[in-house]
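Below is a filled-in request sheet from our internal design queue. Each sheet records the structural input a requester submitted and the sequence that came back. We keep these sheets so that new team members can see what a complete request looks like end to end.

REQUESTER: design group, bay 2
PRIORITY: normal
MODE: inverse folding
CHAIN LENGTH: 323
BACKBONE (tokenized):
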């Protein structure tokens, strides 16, 4: 399969139209939008559905969301990495995919080599939330309590390498927070266990946590962004809560198989960026505590490289191994 694909990639001009003609006619059939997590599993799935709906209108072809969960997002990412680079298969992904090579011994693909970043869809801050029974009212109190009760606090995340996992592990390095990780299949089941009192705290995206905070099922301590979040203006940032220089945003981005013709990538980028600039889409995302992005392709590619370097360093320094 690999050899066959290499041959196809090596001789594109013999078998296909020139790039410009191909991009003008693209797309002529439905596009598969792979989501590497379960349906309804947090902001990533929601973002994919919002974008798919609007791209269907913009491109004049059905953009079909296809949930392919498993292996911390690697099942879905590998499907796209190995798909034909023809503009008919795309992926939504985040930090988790970039850190996978540092965490999994056996990877069927290389995120930096086999996938091409198109644009960042959104960024979203995370929120530090605790079970209301935990006797802490601020992040400083949480750290102090964890040190006074070593080995007692546990936290959940959507698995090794997920953004919430990375957020807590980097907080542990800078604050000495004492906590044990419990991996789940996604953020939603972990939050359910936190509400049920099986976990002590979590750092999870605002769309997932805010409704539970509003219902009094969880207590919010801080947000991870550099600026306060408009939806919860009273909540301090972690920097304000005493963690100097700390910033962590969740993000979701659009990727296609490496080798996808440049003209098609440009067309997909422009259609996506246009959708993400629409006032109704910006408002829809703001209600979820997310910011619409749609940045230029080279800028997003540079960001992906920088994120990979940043998290690779943290994982190596902390000696984090797959659980």
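RETURNED SEQUENCE:
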């Amino acid at each position: 399969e690999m050899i066959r694909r290499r041959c196809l990639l090596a001789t594109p001009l013999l078998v296909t139209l020139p790039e410009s003609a191909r991009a003008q006619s693209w797309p002529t059939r439905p596009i598969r939008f792979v989501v590497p997590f379960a349906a309804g599993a947090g902001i990533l799935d929601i973002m994919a559905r919002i974008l798919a709906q609007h791209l269907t209108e913009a491109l004049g072809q059905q953009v079909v969301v296809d949930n392919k969960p498993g292996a911390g997002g690697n099942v879905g990412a590998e499907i796209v990495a190995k798909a034909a680079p023809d503009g008919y298969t795309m992926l939504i992904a985040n930090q988790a995919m970039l850190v996978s090579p540092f965490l999994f011994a056996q990877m069927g693909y290389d995120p930096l080599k086999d996938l091409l970043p198109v644009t960042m869809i959104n960024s979203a801050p995370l929120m530090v939330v605790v079970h209301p029974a935990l006797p802490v009212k601020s992040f400083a109190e949480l750290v102090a309590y964890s040190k006074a009760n070593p080995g007692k606090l546990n936290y959940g995340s959507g698995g090794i390498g997920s953004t919430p996992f990375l957020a807590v592990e980097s907080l542990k390095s800078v604050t000495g927070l004492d906590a044990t990780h419990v991996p789940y299949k996604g953020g939603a089941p972990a939050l359910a266990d936190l509400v049920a009192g099986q976990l002590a705290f979590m750092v999870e995206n605002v769309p997932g946590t805010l409704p539970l905070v509003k219902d009094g099922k969880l207590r919010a301590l801080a947000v991870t962004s550099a600026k306060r979040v408009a939806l919860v203006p009273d909540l301090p940032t972690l920097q304000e809560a005493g963690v100097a220089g700390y910033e962590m945003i969740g993000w979701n981005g659009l990727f296609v198989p490496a080798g996808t013709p440049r003209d098609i990538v440009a067309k997909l980028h422009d259609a996506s960026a246009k959708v993400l600039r629409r006032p109704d889409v910006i408002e829809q995302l703001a209600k979820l505590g997310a910011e619409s992005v749609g940045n230029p392709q080279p800028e997003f590619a540079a960001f992906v490289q920088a994120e990979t370097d940043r998290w690779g360093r943290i994982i190596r320094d902390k000696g984090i191994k797959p659980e």
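SHEET NOTES:
- Strands lie at 31-35, 63-67, 89-93, 115-130, 154-157, 180-183, 201-205, 219-223, 249-257, 291-292.
- The first strand starts at residue 31 and ends at 35.
FILED BY: M.R.
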